[in-house]
Amino acid sequence: MNDVLTTAEDGPVDHPRRAAGLHTPVLLERCLDLLAPALIGPGAPASPILIDCTLGTGGHAEAALERFGDLAVVGIDRDPEAIALASSRLARFGRRFRAVRTTYDHVDVLAREAAARAGRRDGLVDAILMDLGVSSLQLDDAERGFSYSQDAPLDMRMDPTRGVSAAELLATAPQEEITRILRAYGEERFAPRIARLVVARRGARPLTRTGQLVDIVREAIPAPARRTGGNPAKRTFQALRVAVNDELAILERALPAALASLRVGGRLVVESYQSLEDRIVKNVLRSGSTVSAPPGLPVVPDEARPRLVLLTRGAGRAPASEQEKNPRSASVRLRGAELIRPWKEHQ
């Protein structure tokens, strides 16, 4: 685990202007409403603990700390700039907030640490929040290379200090692997054509800029297919970002780790922004909320009973008024669950 930057306890990082002008998180009040019964309801401890698995610039964490007066929040993010901004923004909460630079599949380790700090011997926390995907901080900084709308270095790493960039991936991956990435993570039906052209172009000139990749995608996709569905490079950029940051594998590890870190009565809330993420979340929550015993048994064994109660009927969506103010909210899918039986037995 890469616990490089720690906490607001260590003093604020000097980013006050950047932190003050950040966007309001998607479905902020709805997320807090779903988490609230685990933090202030019957059975909630006097000093509840929330883990914000996708801290970003601290919008969700700030609102939770303001709304729930005795709450302690641990914020996780792999992006060092996000850690710095959130630590500055939330320094006023002192020891109630702690930021950890790592990937959120380490949520179980951090839950045990947070519980121990609070004198809780069970190693469990009360609520966990995940706001998945690329953050506004990353999208709005053209030099990070996440956006297909501006020419910039072709990077896409959420932690720019480590790992393989999108440019390095495209420079070394075989054509078949590029095709697989575009199909699996971007659901791009023209993946073979794009991959073939990437390999052809990189042989003549290194692909180091987002603008080069956008031009390749436009050339590879037939003109009729480019007329609908927005920017034709959207799926390719999503696929490369997911591959570069190993996002789906981390999510698949993080969800059971998060559920195993909750006390009975604790709640998990997840916001997804693309179908691959939402499918993983939906399947894990649905599996935990259904009887796993074969049908027809006269008595359902305890180990086969549901561990979860779902908090949303299907996936929640942002209202039209929010979508109008914040276009990013148009694609959100919100799901939540309450733990009613210990998850560890479910593994």
Describe it.
- This protein has 347 residues and is of the alpha/beta class.
- It is built from 15 helices and 7 strands.
- A 7-stranded mixed β-sheet has the order 3-2-1-4-5-7-6, sandwiched between helices.
- The chain is globular.
Briefly characterize the structure:
This protein has 347 residues and is of the alpha/beta class. It is built from 15 helices and seven strands. The chain has a seven-stranded mixed sheet with strand order 3-2-1-4-5-7-6, sandwiched between helices.
Sheet-strand content, in percent, reads: 5-15%
Catalogue the unreliable spans.
Answer: 1-17
Total strands: the figure is: 7
Largest sheet: 7 strands, mixed
Summarize this structure as a short list of keywords or feature phrases.
347 residues; 7-stranded mixed sheet; 12% strand; disordered N terminus
